[in-house]
Amino acid sequence: MDSVLAVLVGIGLAASCGFRVFVPLLVSSLAANAGYLELADGFQWLGDWPALAAFGVASVVEVGTYYVPWLDNLLDTIASPAGMIAGAVLFAASVTELDPFLHWTLAVIAGGGAAGIVQGGTVVTRVASTASSGGLANFAVSTFELAAGLLFSALAIVVPVVTIVLLIIVIGCMYFVGRTVLRTFFARRVT
Question: How many domains, the chain?
Answer without folding.
Answer: 1
